[in-house]
Amino acid sequence: MGPDTARLHGVTDPPLLARAAASPRGTVGPFVALGDSVLFPSLTAIRDGTGLVGYLLEWWLVNTSAEQAAGLRDLIGPDAGFLFGSGNVWTDQLHLLPPPAIAADTGQALAYARAGAGRRFGYTVAVAGTPWHATVDVSHASVLAPARAFLVRIILLAGFLLALGIAGIWWYTRRITAPLRELTAASLRIGAGEYAHRVGLVRDDELGQLAGAFDRMAAQIEAAHGQLAERVEELRSMRAQFVHLQRMDAVGRLAGGVAHDFNNMLSVILAEADLARAQLSGEHPAAEAIDGIAAAGSRAAGLTRQLLAFSRRQLVAPSTFSVEEMVEAMVPMLRRLLGERVTITCHSEATAPLVRADRGQVEQVLLNLAVNARDAMPQGGRLAIEVANVTLDDSYAATRPEVAPGPYVMLVVSDTGQGMPDEVQAHIFEPFYTTKPSGEGTGLGLATCYGIVRQHGGHIAAYSEAGVGSTFRVYLPLAEGPVSGPPGPAPAETGGSEHLLVVEDDAALRDVATRILARLGYRVVTVGSAEEALALLEREELELDLVVTDVVLPGKTGRELAEALVERRRGLRVLFVTGYTGDVILQHRLLAQDVASLQKPYTAESLGRKVREVLDAPAPA
């Protein structure tokens, strides 16, 4: 062919001729498609010595047999592909293939799509000494199958572990949430008032400790609720007693006020009746009427004394005496009063049953209680009287506002009579309250007992059951010191010639008192108020032996007047006359037995006797 290469143009590329001319051996060219076959040229330079004389061109078929292709697949795997190619001509040794979408000179694994084979992973390398490239590729599925299988195994394992974890968490959380639900339910039940409910969870962990603490707390709440309920009930009882005491005190103030004004009128009536009767002979036609007036006035005076006893505003004449001895002295009289159908028994456990009180008033308490018991036993029965020393502690006083803790002498009067229902017991100490038919009782017996006991700083309580009987307990403060001697005999009704100052704001009573004392021979000066008395003594140098003054006066009280007069004239005697007294200082002085007093309403006889008694007593220091 010679060196002329024109005939080779179009068959081989010029670069192939250049390489073939420079190579001592043959050089292959790129793949060329011929129909369905793939060929490549082999070009060998022919030299004569050192000169180029021509070229030897050979065409080689790339296609191989199906058996060889199957063997190759067995060797590299059924899903693997082995491709040769250059430029746009590629083959799998059996077929002409379009070029893969892969850079032929990268020399690295790449992902691409091959027509008819889907997504592939391939690796391309250049074949040395040729313009060819060889590519080995496998499908995505074959590459990812192990990963998928591994991933499936991982997912299954993770699912199993997750399910196991969920089961464990459920079991563990149930061990936590179930007790918590029980604690919550128990809290709600306790909040609803079921204080006896308990969780009862026995475990060794923190929840068991929490449940135990909750049960202890619930027990404390139950105990506290019980104590609170008791305290509330005590407070209700105290409030009811306090309201009752307020009502009784209000009634007492009203009764005391009425009795004060009524006593002034009764004093005038009784004194005028005495003066009138003294001037009449027994055969005078008016004598009987005047005696009737005096008798009615005396009965009215008894009622006012009961009202004053209830209102705790009557004056007392205290002494120290034994309650046990007083009961023994009264039993014979009580047996005559109550009759043969009532059996009286006495019992004493008192070691020092001494009290300081007005003995006559305490006897009146026992007498009223005995008469009340007799009326409750119309067919007869037993009356038990007991005396004992007791101590009322703080817990007893806490529910009874009128009680002060301390030692007391207790006088108990019990009967086996009809008893009283609760609704009657709530009112028995109220004045004018009675269950007797109209006209058979004043309703002042127990009210008088209540007032006398309270005035002496004591306490009276009643317990009764319908059809069983009643028990009254009278508590009087224990006294210390020797027993007081019996009171001396009353002085004879004799007059005198001493100088007296009478201070009384009620004009009618002032007038009758002046006439009574003047009739007895006394020289009497009268005024209507404390201010008038002090002004009179400032103007005139009066010789005074006794001041007879009402306690309740307009402006300065009788007590204040007496203190002012005694400061000016040491040794001056004072006689207090009153229908009631709410004067605490005066009451204290009376208890000290250094004050003389006369209770309204008084008669001409009682006024004369008391004035003479005070004048004959030693002058105060």
What does this structure look like?
The protein is α+β, with helices and mostly antiparallel strands. Among the domains are: 6-61, no CATH class; 318-477, Heat Shock Protein 90 (2-Layer Sandwich); 499-616, 3-Layer(aba) Sandwich (Rossmann fold), CATH 3.40.50. 45% of the residues lie in helices and 23% in strands. The chain has 15 helices and 22 strands. It has helices spanning 14-22, 66-76, 140-191, 206-278, 287-310, 323-338, 359-376, 394-398, 422-425, 445-455, 507-519, 530-539, 558-568, 584-591, 604-616; strands spanning 27-28, 32-34, 37-48, 51-61, 80-86, 89-91, 96-97, 109-114, 118-126, 133-139, 319-322, 342-348, 354-357, 381-392, 406-415, 459-465, 469-477, 499-503, 523-527, 546-550, 573-578, 596-599. The protein has a 6-stranded antiparallel β-sheet. Residues 581-593 have low confidence and may be disordered.
Give a nutshell description of this structure:
This protein has 621 residues and is α+β, with helices and mostly antiparallel strands. The protein has helices at 14-22, 66-76, 140-191, 206-278, 287-310, 323-338, 359-376, 394-398, 422-425, 445-455, 507-519, 530-539, 558-568, 584-591, 604-616; strands spanning 27-28, 32-34, 37-48, 51-61, 80-86, 89-91, 96-97, 109-114, 118-126, 133-139, 319-322, 342-348, 354-357, 381-392, 406-415, 459-465, 469-477, 499-503, 523-527, 546-550, 573-578, 596-599.
The count of helical stretches stands at: 15
CATH topology (level 3) name of the domain at 318-477: Heat Shock Protein 90
The portion of residues forming beta strands comes to: 15-25%
Look at the structure and name the CATH superfamily of the domain at 318-477. Answer: Histidine kinase-like ATPase, C-terminal domain
What distance separates the N and C termini?
182 Å
DSSP helix fraction = 40-55%
Number of strands: 22
Q: What CATH first level of the domain at 318-477 would be assigned?
A: Alpha Beta
- Examine the secondary-structure arrangement and name the CATH architecture of the domain at 318-477: 2-Layer Sandwich
Low-confidence region ranges: 581-593
Radius of gyration, in Å, reads 66 Å
Biggest beta sheet summary? 6 strands, antiparallel
Shape: rod-shaped
Q: Let me know the average pLDDT.
A: 77
Strand order of the largest sheet: 7-6-5-10-9-8
